[in-house]
Amino acid sequence: MLNTVAKSLLSVSRWLVAGIAIATAAGCATYPAAPTSAASSEYKYLIGPGDMLNIQVWRNPELSMAVPVRPDGRIAAPLVEDMVAIGKDPTILARDIEKELAKFIRDPVVTVIVTNFVGPYSEQIRVIGEAGKPQTLPYRQKMTLLDVMIAVGGLTDFADGNGASILRTVEGGKQYGVRLKDLVKRGDVSANVDMRPGDVLIIPQSWF
User: Fold this and answer.
1) Does the pLDDT of residue 26 top 80, yes or no?
2) Within-domain flag for 61
3) For residue 39, what pLDDT is reported?
4) Cβ–Cβ under 8 Å, residues 145 and 178
5) Contact, 167 vs 196, CB < 8 A?
6) Which residues, in sequence order, are CB contacts of 45 under 8 Å at separation 6+?
7) Burial status of residue 163 (CB atoms within 10 A of its CB: 0-12, 13-18, 19 or more)
8) Beta-sheet pairing, 110-116 with 125-129
9) What CA–CA distances, in Å, run from 176 to 20, 23, 66, 77, 79?
10) Total domains, the chain
């Protein structure tokens, strides 16, 4: 399991380093405009390290509890030891817990509710460069570029907002140009675009 988490981190880091290198080398390079609509209606939230899970076992309150997903992607609960949670949606994890509990109780019915969202590293949105608060954000269905910019506190005074780009890891590292200055400073909502899981938003510094 540790190998799976490490590979996920390595993959994201590889794209992150590639994006920084491209942005540095290209300077004023232009990229195709990011597609306005990119969210998938089939997206399902996957559990990641740091998530808090509320596990409810019907008619067995003594087995119901809130548990964190550990850094290694596993959880531990009554009668369930070191079960892998990372990369599963809540429904799949509930079925897996039922199978484990069935060794001890008859016909268990389990519901898993995620109460604190972090998500897998591979699906987090990363913002680097001239943002007010560069950081990592959990991806949410139909998340837009404007949502991201509000979360990171907008642009710094030194940002080349219209020279920013999105590195899209789910498309093999393809890079798209975005108009952050028009969106954030001028209120041009036509510059708003959908984000996708694993996107890296790169905001370069203005040369003048």
Assistant:
1) no
2) yes
3) 79
4) yes
5) no
6) 89, 90, 114, 117, 119, 141
7) buried
8) unpaired
9) 14, 11, 40, 44, 48
10) 2
How many whole angstroms separate alpha carbon 121 and alpha carbon 173?
16
H or E segment to which residue 126 belongs: strand 125-129
Adjacency order of strands within the sheet including 200-203: 136-137, 125-129, 200-203, 164-168, 174-178
Range of the domain at 81: 52-116
Same domain, 137 and 179: yes
**Mean pLDDT, rounded, for 24-28:** 46
Tell whether 208 is covered by a domain. no
The residue with tokens 């994006």 is 19
Is there a contact between 139 and 146 (Cβ–Cβ < 8 Å)? no
Residue 125 shares a structural domain with residue 107: no
The answer to whether residue 155 scores a pLDDT higher than 90 is: yes
